[in-house]
Amino acid sequence: MRRLLLLAVLALGVSVWAATIQFDPAPVPLKGTFRVRVAGIGAETGDVVVVNVDTGELVRVPLKPEGGRLVSEEIYALRDCDSIPEVARYVLHVAVGDVLAAATELEDGLSTTTLVTAPQGLPELSLRAWDAARNMWCPRQGGHELSPGRLLVTVVDPVADVGCDQESVPLALALGDHGTQLDLREEGPAAGRFSAEIELVMEPLGTEVAVKLLHQGSELLSVTARAGLELVLTYGELAVSYPLASLEASLELEPGGAEDVGCQILIRVAEIEASEVRWFLDGIEQAERGPELRVVRSEPTYPDAIQVIALVRQGALWDRVQTSVSFVPRTEISFVDAETEERVSGWTVCSRPIVVKLAQVYDDPAPRVWFGLLGPGCSAREIPLTPQGEGEYLSQVILPEELGACAGDVLWAQYKDPTCPEDVAYVLLVLR
Length: 432
Prior knowledge:
- The chain has four domains: 116 residues, Sandwich (Immunoglobulin-like); 120 residues, no CATH class; 79 residues, Immunoglobulin-like, CATH 2.60.40.10; 100 residues, Sandwich (Immunoglobulin-like).
- By secondary structure, it is mainly beta.
């Protein structure tokens, strides 16, 4: 029993102190450093030869004691196109997939092998915008508004940078529901940075505003501008979105959205100071480019609605706003019988009760009427009106004889639109 126990201890001793040689780390990352460690030997010095089996290149590196082992100095695993750091004493040129072998003559010879693998690391995705005032690229954080202009997209991905040729990586771009792919070119053979310049543009397209992405003058994407539009950049599992900056323009109508045919309506861009405005009436572009447009409709078409669209620019930003204008028939005025509301025209007797009737009053919320007798005297007076329905008003009852009128006098009534001097209605009635 004691003999078996002794044999077990001896076997354990042999296992603990058996000589080993290994790469650290293993496998070896491209563009990284590694050491060779030798353990389980009694020697205090020595050297190790490290060979790139695929190319035949080798380096001989001294071993020095460290923590009970012999350890080599750092060895750099670099590509032919990588710059060599000043502190690097030992360099082995490698490529992904190369086999490395390490051997030492210590302990009657020890050796081991490992592979070169792609470098590890998480990718980074960034965006910069060109600031013409400062003549420099400025970083833009995701979630912040993005204005039209030159943009530089950059991906840093150690895993994708393995060869000495300038490589490319795919980047997905999206504007709303439209998407495309753009290849980012490596900035140099060993840069590990992949970039491309694009341009974000807003411009009129008919009666709409188009948002476009351009690359080297060619169109990548084009969508119709709308609220909430975002630019989304996606690389692998990384996705960054940038809401597009927008204008908040509006249109003001003076005097309002409805006016008599032949009367003028002033349409004005409000809320912002516009650099340029493109006006469209019923889809037809107008020559005016300023912030105001005057509209007059003289054709006798009732009712007549016009769609007004304004494409408003401020700097590089555009906005689309619209409204409608209605041109209504001119106001009509007449004398009518106070009881039957039948029209009284030509002549009437002095004792007949009559009222003034206004019709087609669509653009004046508080119409006013004056009446009196024709002649040198100042008999004009305002008469109160009562609304009767859409666009219709009736005055108080008028008894011509109470005005001192008699046969041969002429009674008159008149309405003036306060917002349109051209809209004047009057009527005459001869008394007998």
